[in-house]
Write a structure and sequence with these properties.
Elements lengths: L1 H19 E4 L1 H4 L3 E10 L3 E2 L4 E10 L8 E7 L6 H10 L7 E7 L8 E9 L12 E11 L2 E13 L7 E9 L15 H6 L4 H13 L8 E5 L1 H11 L2 E2 L5 E2 L6 H15 L4 E5 L7 H5 L5 H18 L7 E2 L8 H9 L4 E3 L19 E5 L5 E5 L3 H7 L2 H4 L2 H17 L16 E6 L8 H10 L3 E3 L2 H7 L18 H20 L6 H12 L8 H22 L7 E3 L3 E7 L8 E8 L3 E2 L5 E6 L5 E8 L3 E10 L10 E7 L4 H20 L8
Parallel strand pairs: 3-9, 10-11, 10-19, 10-20, 11-14, 15-16, 16-18, 21-28
Antiparallel strand pairs: 1-2, 2-4, 4-7, 5-6, 5-8, 8-9, 12-13, 17-18, 22-26, 23-25, 23-27, 24-26, 27-28
Helix pairs in contact: 1-3, 1-11, 3-13, 5-7, 5-14, 6-7, 6-9, 11-13, 13-14, 16-17, 16-18, 17-18
Amino acid sequence: MRTLYRALGAALSASVLVATTLLVAPAALGQETVVRTTLSGQTPFTTKDESVVTVTFLAENLGEGSLGDLSVGFSIGPAIRSRVGYTSSLIEGPGSTLVFLDTFSQTGTIEADAVRELSVSVDLSEIDEVSEIDSSVYPARIELRVAGLPVAWIDTPLIHIVRTPDDPIDLAWWVELDAPIAMNPQGQLADAAFETAIAPRGGLRQQVEALRDAVAPDDGLVAIDLVVVPAVIDQLARMADGYERAQGDPVPEGERPATDAAGLLATLRELVADDDVHVIATPFAAPLLPSLASGGLTADLDGQQDLGEAVISEQLGHTPVTATARPPQGALDDASVAWLAARGATTILAEADSVARAAQPNDFTLLPVAAVSTGDGTTLDLVLPDPGLQERLGDPILTGDPVRASQTVLGELAAIWREAPVSGPQLDGSETVRGVALSLPASLPPALWAPLVRRVSRAPFVQLTHAGVFAGRVHPVQDDAAIVESLARFPRDYVDAIREQHRNVAAYRSMLVDPSPEPDRLDRSLLFAEAGDYVDDPLAGRAWYDQVSRTTGAIFQGLLPDVQQEFLLTSSEGSIPVRMGDPGPTPLTVQVVLRSAAFEFPGGSQRMITLEGPNQVEPFDVVAKASGPQPIKVKIRAPSGRDLGEDQNLTVRTTAVSSVALWTTIGAGVVLVLLWSRRLVRRPKL
């Protein structure tokens, strides 16, 4: 079935391109005519009481001459009986057997390089072949004609509902609020596309406003799951407070685009406050779960999720649900499913191909829920989007005509419902509850959000349901499914570098005397380095952990003692002043460890000290065991136990040694002489 969807989808893309731009030979019209048409409005569905369908479209004259003698042809084919028939109608139009055909004359012209909006209306109640008994989907074609000849056309479905559906199909749908990482490790905005996305006509703004408008009636009928990538919210909050672009120019708080970020956050808070909206937080930087769970960074998963949920709660004032989870980009493997289960998830919003689904009788829609089990026997439900619907949304040619794409998705939902508008029981007598799932990615064109969300949220033949409820209602489901595992992994050296910097940040954190946000900021940078986008582009991701390395490295290097000076010890006992480095503006606690075979340290060779400023001197009492220049190795260590750089060699020149050390040395020498002399005495022969 999926192969058929792909084949028909490819044909559909080609048909859209041909249908919206058509060349007419000069012999027909006396000139070459090129017209591009896009659907600008259509009645989403009609009813017996409101049976007039109006179609409005834009016609753009790409030719060199004016187009006159205009008319619009409107043709309708017989009711569609299957999904395959529905997809075919999008490619082939209403066919040759029509139930309606009419031509509507248009006044005026379309000048060269000009765009004109045209509109036609038809009352479906006046067409005998449009059923007054069964709700149906009908294929339609709207043609733009010049001198009676078609120059471009649009194929679109008409949906006619004759009564309120007794058994609407359950629809679980989720929207992903996501965007590429726009900030660089220095906290500057590096990707100007993010400013465009949050502007009034940008993708993120259009997405959020469309959802807000859909749930605004507050009637409890528009249940929707909103999947939020917390890093997006984090970046919006930083921009709202004023920020600097990577080129160096500042954007003060209160000026655009900082105000765009603040406004979008305000709209988001309004949206998530609605009870119809369930917020699902991904791990903070949207890492691909298998890249951490099976890639050597399992320990970071909880930190990613904890921070993500904290950002949502702090910035949006809303606690995310935890029983439903969405793995970033839908990437899963057995280890990540087990981790999700351990975090309390019972429902996973998956991809259309996360499991292999069995074909259904009569080529009906695939089952939208599959049950998977973890190694310890825990069962989770995967909600699986319909592959045909997802291919529609992934078709750039179709989505380039937003109203038509929205109507196409709505028509397909109606065709799915029409497969079994009244569900009978299963063979075992259990109740049948049909369902379909739809995932709306953040990558949809901005102009698509409003018409698509409006159509889906108001469709009378679907019952909008939160995914967690949906998974428990729909029956039957596919049992004992096997995950199609993602093999996404970071390179080994990338993983090792992140681990190394985690240890450096932990060392720095252990050194702090007073509370500081800096370790959290550094840890957050390492979480950014684990973002899913960097799996295929690790070179871009390493900028995050390189910045952490430079920051901690500079702090550690600054603490090392000054060993350039050579000290002179004129007696066997004395004190060596160890001049420490600069802790910077924040007091830091470190452990100083001294080692030398030429000295004893009666007060101890190591101690914990707090550095409050540069050049702080720490005296260590020593007792010399030898004269002349002697080295003392100085090690600086964090309270966590991590060494901060290489050992430093401090040189101390002594002109005397202690009497104890001297007599000990003499005694040892005498013993050695006696032992050696015994070897010179010949033993008597027996």
